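Help wanted!
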Amino acid sequence: MEAIWLYQFRLIVIGDSTVGKSCLIRRFTEGRFAQVSDPTVGVDFFSRLVEIEPGKRIKLQIWDTAGQERFRSITRAYYRNSVGGLLLFDITNRRSFQNVHEWLKETKVHVQPYQIVFVLVGHKCDLDTQRQVTRHEAEKLAAAYGMKYIETSARDAINVEKAFTDLTKDIYELVKRGDISIQEGWEGVKSGFVPNVVHSSEEVVKSERRCLC
Amino acid sequence: MTVREKTRLEKFRQLLSSHNTDLDELRKCSWPGVPREVRPITWRLLSGYLPANTERRKLTLQRKREEYFGFIEQYYDSRNEEHHQDTYRQIHIDIPRTNPLIPLFQQPLVQEIFERILFIWAIRHPASGYVQGINDLVTPFFVVFLSEHVEEDVENFDVTNLSQDVLRSIEADSFWCMSKLLDGIQDNYTFAQPGIQKKVKALEELVSRIDEQVHNHFRRYEVEYLQFAFRWMNNLLMRELPLRCTIRLWDTYQSEPEGFSHFHLYVCAAFLIKWRKEILDEEDFQGLLMLLQNLPTIHWGNEEIGLLLAEAYRLKYMFADAPNHYRR
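Answered by r_m:
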């Protein structure tokens, strides 16, 4: 049976190839670290519930995107219907950090007239000895674009919950304040599943359908 | 081996050794699957890499293998030059992630072979270049040509047991056969991937005609075909099926006219409809997407692929270029 949730948010995860997008999402949604995984082609879908306050649950629909340039024509179709995003770079790969500007430019063009609340994620922070991007410069960059910055590791499960939960809370606040609102024809935010009444009538519909079959 | 299998193998041997192999007959025989023993040579012939005339084969192979290693000599060093380094970098990071669960592909020697094949192909085809997914397409050829030299389980074989010469011929043959395959589907990988866009639309159109219920179910829960079928086209279903099944599937694709570019569409439709019960049981977007991204084919073998192909064949004949009045 469907769990009860207040809102559904659609999030998108972007960043260069091999910064660890799929691994981060898998750690978050499946609770394990995939040692090996095929490169993502196009877009993959994941989902999880998060509790932002006792009893207040948000359903996250997460789109994992391919990092390779050629897939951009497919992946950019998903920006428009996302309310939030995690923009990843790999702290051991300077180039992936430099490309953060490009990613923001790219999304800005294609998300109009909506906006995406981004968090900048410095991933693979377990590999601190190979670090090529300091925390300080990443924080500076994030601040310049009005984003929060967080460092995560899917391997060691560092800050993975926090990255997603903090972003979800921020979006929730914006929704509560009315800065972001539910709109017809936009998938970014959907209002929740109201318990009791709807549930029981759904059950009736279901059983009727089964009888017909 | 059953009597029937023995007869089939005999028939293949006869065809393959005749002075001029009858390619139409070979396609007909290969459609329902090629016996393992004769698969390497059959694939070389079906892909158009080897000539039908037996006398010309040896020379052709020799010439093509030399040509390939000529490319390597001429171009492979350019992988670190500025205009090619993005291509090489992407290939280099994708190779260890290709079939990560099969030990064969974790061997350094094998990974180097894949890198060379993909890099040479990419720089010779600048309109598409290297696109993720193409790395998967080398695999079946490599495994089939390797199987010619390996008695035991190919997926766990240590390639250092083979001579340099043998490895070189496997590499060159894989390159050429993959090139032939890609010639037919290059628009899958050019800018904005028009081939895939077109095929996903065609799949949607086809499913709306053959299974309105499934089609409407997707619409009701706002599932778009591109969300799950993009990968089916980009990787030719290789991510959805075990490798052994892909190899069997390709026996047929190479026997069909335009197997990879056209017949594949009907296979995708048949594959989707195969799960219609599971699909109709899911009653939200999330459940549907999770199902479609993780279809349980792990135990599939020749029998399932045979049924799938038979259904695809039926669909092709019922619906190919059918006018709109077929629409219900």
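OP: Thanks! One thing I noticed: Residues 54-75 of chain B form the longest helix (22 residues).
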